[in-house]
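$ ./design --mode recover --in tokens.txt
reading tokens...
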């Protein structure tokens, strides 16, 4: 529902959270001619989960952020904030640009300036000591690794699922079996997915697959593998390629945080105010409209009450709900407080070498594979994914040719490895990586543990009643929920940015209709949208 533009308010626009969604919203408000907003961020640095951790000059990307979107608006926005590295810089980094056709003239940075690199994408599965393509393909490598009989069974299983799919798709297991067959699902998807989420796939909504995997299937992966050698890449935009099949992506030379630190600097240069180590304590409302916010300094504990005009929130819904005064209805509070999340721990290990035999599948003389990240399928270890930061950007590593690894553990707060002291987490992670034959303990030079709370909004439990929470918040005409935690959606950063853009568009036009925001990452058309 739309409403006439509100009369001028004595309050200011408030953005809660300085991650991709919050900073995009702040910048777009300024660009739209709104008064400079106030951004409050509980962390000590901007970027949210897209921040970069600097440990002795070795940089960690929390979760791995490929800068790729099928939205022209997002791609152009990124390149306006951070230019492409000049060709000379790419040569210095040992990477030759290829297929860099852009629909706009992207500026190039001078050597040494903050810039995007164009990086090759490779992700594989590591299972029983062998590498498998990701997404899984019925090809010669699969036959060598598993044997012809197993692969034939997988092919037959996929054919059965294609001919007689499970209908309706009630959960994530149904979704995956329909697209890959039951045999492939049991081998490569079931154990890993349950390792990530901590619950059986049958308890996870099929909506997760619709948002994260979309049109990907075994047929799509095979088609891509057959066509690409003849047609080549469609350039860095790759608009007709499923996200899991892209061959290259943009990446800030010093990690994703470099982009968001640049955006934060521009917001402040235009008059915006970003308060780090500050958190929202209370949101007051009257007559279905937010009126005042109380902000607390995380260091001094001093509080400030300010009048607000428009509020864009990226904070977890449970925390936002509990901040309201008067408080939210009991049923809304109950659902919001029980919304599930998956937290994760990243262990950075700096090693002299890895144990993968050199010369095989692009492995270098130090035993380092060419992958950006590797999915660890072995059920005997808790390790979920392994990042190789060297392959995101050589500048992520302080001293070449050392190898800087990121071991990712999906867990809940209060359970191992989250609950262990850092040195025990490092020992645990080291044992696991040694046990699957990827490193030797003696090669470790340094380590760092980073805990990331509420990293992944989950699609089970009280999420089934999420519509009730959404409807309640949507009735506030000057409150807009965006971002991964703000919407309790497992969005990529481009989805979060698009949601922020639509929120600002609604504010500028005087609309209280939130449907366009919630449609992000559920509609096919968003991929091709220019706004």
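writing sequence...
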């Amino acid at each position: 529902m739309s409403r006439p533009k509100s009369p001028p308010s004595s309050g200011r626009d408030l953005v809660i959270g300085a991650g991709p969604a919050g900073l995009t919203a702040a910048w777009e408000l300024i660009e739209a001619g709104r008064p400079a907003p106030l951004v409050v961020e509980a962390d000590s640095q901007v970027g949210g989960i897209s921040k970069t951790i600097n440990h002795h000059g070795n940089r960690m990307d929390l979760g791995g952020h490929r800068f790729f979107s099928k939205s022209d608006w997002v791609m152009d926005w990124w390149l306006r904030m951070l230019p492409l590295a000049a060709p000379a810089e790419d040569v210095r980094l040992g990477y030759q640009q290829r297929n860099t056709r852009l629909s706009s003239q992207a500026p190039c940075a001078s050597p040494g300036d903050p810039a995007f690199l164009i990086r090759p994408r490779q992700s594989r599965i590591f299972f029983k000591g062998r590498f498998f393509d990701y997404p899984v393909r019925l090809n010669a490598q699969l036959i060598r690794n598993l044997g012809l009989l197993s692969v034939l069974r997988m092919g037959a299983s996929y054919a059965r699922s294609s001919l007689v799919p499970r209908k309706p798709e009630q959960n994530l297991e149904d979704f995956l079996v329909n697209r890959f067959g039951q045999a492939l699902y049991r081998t490569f998807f079931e154990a890993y997915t349950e390792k990530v989420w901590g619950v059986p796939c049958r308890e996870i909504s099929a909506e997760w697959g619709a948002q994260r995997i979309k049109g990907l299937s075994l047929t799509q992966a095979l088609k891509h593998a057959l066509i690409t050698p003849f047609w080549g890449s469609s350039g860095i935009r790759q608009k007709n390629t499923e996200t899991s099949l892209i061959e290259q992506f943009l990446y800030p030379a010093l990690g994703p945080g470099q982009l968001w630190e640049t955006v934060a600097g521009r917001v402040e240069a235009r008059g915006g105010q970003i308060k780090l180590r500050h958190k929202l304590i209370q949101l007051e409302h009257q007559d279905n409209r937010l009126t005042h916010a109380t902000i607390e300094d995380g260091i001094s504990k001093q509080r400030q009450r300010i009048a607000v005009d428009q509020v864009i929130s990226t904070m977890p819904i449970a925390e936002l709900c509990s901040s309201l005064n008067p408080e939210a209805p009991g049923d809304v509070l109950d659902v919001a407080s029980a919304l599930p999340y998956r937290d994760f721990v990243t262990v950075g290990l700096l090693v002299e070498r890895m144990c993968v035999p050199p010369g095989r599948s692009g492995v270098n003389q130090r035993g380092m594979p060419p992958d950006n990240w590797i999915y660890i399928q072995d059920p005997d270890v808790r390790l979920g994914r392994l990042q190789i930061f060297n392959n995101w950007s050589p500048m992520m590593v302080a001293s070449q040719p050392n190898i800087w690894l990121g071991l990712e553990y999906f867990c809940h707060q209060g359970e191992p490895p989250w609950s262990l002291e850092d040195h025990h987490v490092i020992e645990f992670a080291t044992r696991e990586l040694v046990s699957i034959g990827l490193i030797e303990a003696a090669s470790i030079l340094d380590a760092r543990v980073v805990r990331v709370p509420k990293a992944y909004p989950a699609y089970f439990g009280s999420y089934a009643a999420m519509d009730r929470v959404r409807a309640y918040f949507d009735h506030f005409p000057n409150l807009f929920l965006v971002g991964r935690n703000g919407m309790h959606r497992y969005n990529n950063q481009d989805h979060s940015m698009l949601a922020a853009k639509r929120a600002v568009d609604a504010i500028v036009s005087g609309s209280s209709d939130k449907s366009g925001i919630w449609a992000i990452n559920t509609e096919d058309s968003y991929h091709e949208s220019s706004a």
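exit 0
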